[in-house]
Amino acid sequence: MTQISILGCGWLGLPLAKRLIENGNSVKGSTTSESRLSILENVEINPFLVILEADSVSENIDNFLAESEILIIDIPPKLRNENPDSEKKFFVEKIKNLIPFIEKSTVGKVLFIGSTSVYGDDNNLVTEETIPNPETESGKQMLLVEALLQSNPNFETTILRFGGLIGEDRHPVKFLTGKENLENPDAPVNLIHQKDCIAIIEEIIKQSKWNEVFNAVAPFHPTREEYYTQKAKDLNLVLPKFSSEKSNIKKTISSEKIETILNYQFKLENY
């Protein structure tokens, strides 16, 4: 049995924790909301209220990390656009405050859930060898956090960069339904289903693939117009309408490394 701590038991972290427990692991999970502690406890997660700030960490962080071999960091930057100056390095500072606690804990392996937003938005095929060039503030801070974790000699870090997240209760077509003059109809989609996210994390832990960087995006890339039009039809939604005058083809993310190194097959039927 492996003791695992998951920092952030939200949309992905909670079902991930449940799966890891089903597989015989012991899981500590964190939330920033007291009302969610009972939700975690009800599915046999050892719950902790952990709040990271740019200048402080919850007092119980030591107990949250105690005896765990693996730490999974699954917290979004949560940057607020209305005050960008105050948010420079905000997420980075949070992780900087966390690192000394990891260093003195039993944690030897860290899995950081990142994003393909660390790559630039040009018209290329993107692999793990592509030099990141983030254009958004969250992407820039994600990349800085990756470097902080990877360069620390006290633990081994694997970076898992997910594309757009979808699931049974979460699909971007619901935000596009009925809209008109949508941009970039010919851009390839770079999506990944929650079930694949969880299964890939399981494989990384099972196969002990540490000190790695993986892109995780389903290996099928229809255009935005093709994909969202068909998905709207499947869900009986008002079709979105795209404008061919606003076309600016973007990157295609390759997951060949995950398919090769982990011998992983994506669950395309879920999309």
Describe the structure.
The chain is an alpha/beta fold and 271 residues long. The chain has one domain: NAD(P)-binding Rossmann-like Domain (Rossmann fold, 3-Layer(aba) Sandwich). It is built from nine helices and eleven strands. Helix 2 (37-42) links the parallel strand 2 and strand 3 (46-49). Helix 4 (90-103) runs parallel beside helix 5.
Supply the key terms.
271 residues, 7-stranded parallel sheet, single chain, two-stranded parallel ribbon, Rossmann fold, 9 helices, alpha/beta, 11 strands
Give the structure's gist in a few sentences.
With 271 residues, the protein is α/β, with parallel strands linked by helices. 31% of the residues lie in helices and 17% in strands.
Say which CATH homologous superfamily is assigned. NAD(P)-binding Rossmann-like Domain
The first-to-last residue Cα distance is 33 Å
* Fraction in beta strands: 15-25%
Q: If you compute it from the alpha carbons, what radius of gyration comes out, rounded to the nearest whole angstrom?
A: 19 Å
Structural class, from secondary structure content? alpha/beta
Mean pLDDT equals 93
Q: Which sheet architecture does the biggest sheet show?
A: 7 strands, parallel
Low-confidence stretches: none
The overall strand count is 11
CATH top level assignment:
Alpha Beta
Shape: globular
CATH architecture label: 3-Layer(aba) Sandwich
Looking at CATH, which topology would you report?
Rossmann fold
Number of domains: 1
Question: How many DSSP helices?
Answer: 9
Strand order of the largest sheet: 3-2-1-4-5-7-10
Which H/E pattern describes the elements? Answer: EHEHEHEHEEHEEHEHEHEH
Level of helix content? 25-40%
